[in-house]
Write a structure and sequence with these properties.
The protein has about 70 residues and is mostly helical. It has 4 helices and no strands. The longest helix has 18 residues.
Amino acid sequence: MKLITVKMPDLYVRGIDELVKAGNYSSRSEVIRIAIRELLKHELWGEIHGEENGALLNLSQVGVEDEV
């Protein structure tokens, strides 16, 4: 995995911290990885609606599922 730095509003950070504190996720990183994975599934790979399109990548094709 690569380390990246992201700036975000305090409100987002507090929300992420609440999710971790509640025990829903193990870390801030996990929350962010899951959120980004879901965004990419919806916006880029079209998996939310089960779209079939040769131009869209499947998660298994890029090996993302193994890393998250």
